[in-house]
Amino acid sequence: MSMSEPESIDIIHRLKNHIAIVVGYCELLIPEFEEGDRRRGDLLEVHKASQEAMALIPELARRVREGDRALRDE
Amino acid sequence: MSVLRILHLEDDRLDADLVEATLAAGGLEAAITRVDDRESFRAALESGQFDVILADYSLPRFDGLSAQIMTAELRPEIPFIFLSGSIGEELAVERLKDGATDYVLKDRMARLPSAVRRALAEAANRAERRHAEENVRRLNAELEQRVALRTMELAESQRRLQAILDHSPAAISMKDLSGRYIVANREFERVAGVGANDLLDKSDADLFPPRLAVTYRANDARVMAKQHGLSVEETFLLPDGVHVYQSIKFPVLDDRGRPYALCAISIDITERKKTDDALKMARLEAERANRAKSEFLSRMSHELRTPLNAILGFAQVLQLDELSDEKKESVLQILRGGEHLLALINEVLDIARIEAGHLALSAEAVDARDIVQLAMELVQPLAQQRDVSLVVDESRAADAVILADRQRLHQILLNLLSNAVKYNRRGGRVTVGFEEVEGERLRIVVTDTGIGIPPDNLERLFQPFERLGAERTPVEGTGLGLAVSRGLAEAMGGILGVTSEVDRGSTFWVELALGDASHPRPGPGSRSRLAAPAESRLTMGVVLYIEDNQSNVRLMERVLERRPGVRLLHAPSGEDGLRLARDANPDLILLDLHLPDMSGEDVLLQLSQDAALKRIPIAILSADALPAQTRRLKAAGAIAYLTKPIDIGQVMRTIDDSLGGPAPGGVEGPRPQAGE
User: Fold this and answer.
1) Terminal-residue alpha carbon distance, chain A
2) Which of B310, B330, B463 is opposite residue A45, by nearest beta carbon?
3) What is the ipTM of this complex?
4) Mind listing the pLDDT tens digit for each residue in A21-34?
């Protein structure tokens, strides 16, 4: 049941896909609500959080690559 | 005494008669053979057996001197006595020096018997001595022959032993007690880099580098001190580099059990060591890779849970608002995206935990029917959506109490049921049944009427990320569910299996040990967990939320807008939380575990040890969901342990339960499940 490097990369890919869906629907919905509408505020929170999650992905990918390279170099 | 046989060299018959008479008078009976010339004397010597020879010195045709010389040549063992009337003293002494036994003058014939007796005695002594000497010579010869034979045998044995030693791949040597080599085979000579002649009588210090020689001697000393064999690793410097040998060293004992030498048999294990080292390195690398992977998964989980909490939390809040159908669908997509993220993270973490053997399980006697019912209810909306009917067949479930971790069994059944629905055909059916196996185990069987799976693909189903092409279909999933489910079943001592028939459907089953039916524990979940909190209830009170993440605080504010009677206080740190708890005396504290100044656990302990505050109920809100931590914090006084991303319904129920009476029911539903 072990997870290989390609599988780690696959996980990252899937994470990005799911986050992208959240970001996409947020960006579709936000213009539908007026400024000051609390629902708009909720969507902005979701959007901000999904952007934060997306920003973590390159860092995670980098760590996976670095971990694998470090192992290969030893 | 027997008759003496005498050879008498005498020409005068009267003298011969006188001799015979004298001997007889002296008590010696004799058979005398008289001769008087050279030929007859020689013939008598060569043919006859005589005890003594009596010889006149001067004869007409022969002489005593010649007779003495002839006797010394032919029969030297026979005593020779001169019997003469003319031999003078001087001549007689000279004859005696040349080997004559005695001499008797004819005018003193009376001495003859005693002279004969003495001569015979001396001859007997000589014969005995000669016989003894011959025996000694013979024995010596035999001994020498035996020694030669044994020497030959020993040499042969030594050659055989040396041949064996020399053809042995091991380096074999023996040292005396002073540490000098007394035996070595060719391999040892090769290792030492010297020939046989250069090795014997040398010490380690003479043959090897000082540091190595010291090590060998130290090992030898250990063997001799303990007086028994020892297996040690020793290194030798060979022309192609350092080699590692496994040396078996033991004392060699004499027949009295005392050590007189030390033997060493050394085998080159350099290649094996290299292989071992390579395997060790590979194992370390694998462990490092596993650690790196676990760290990656752990980081991924923790770092993503904070934004995921906001995504799922605010999406749930939005779902509770009035929205057009189109907007509701978009919000549902956001929720699904978040749910899939959460499912992926949880399943990957489960795989990592199963793999590392770190899966925490809490086995108890549970009624499998309750867990099945709970899972069926959760899957029901998905089944309705896909026009799949769900059926439970309890006809063969006389005893359905099994030993299992309730939460993990629920997870397995939810996975099997949601797969059975998702991979079914429209209008199909999913049946859950129970079968007792050998009176010791219960098999929970989930059968669908889907498209089935070809036999070649059955085992691949349980490989992580293996979706058998489903990724190209609208059916959603992480590809981890069955791998996790099988790992969970096995971790509970059970089995998860499958049979399938293409175009007819599949049957998945999980088999676990039967438990004590008299002690099934009621589950914490079941239907009540799904009951929605009231939309508008008159919950009144003050809730203190100790949390440093502003997004989470804002989410809680939005959640509590549905409880107008509840006032929310916020503390961004542990210290602020403790101060505010003392100042405001809230009715409920919601406590995050990861605070900037101190751990939430410390805050919980300080609150529970403060007489004025310990009555305040505390609910933990954390991204960590480790069972051991949950148990510890509940034991420390927490009334609930809520995991992030939060389930708004669950949070509301906790608040309602703490601040007011039971909820009468309402429109707030649970968060949609992944796959719905």
Assistant:
1) 25
2) B310
3) 0.89
4) 899 899 989 999 99
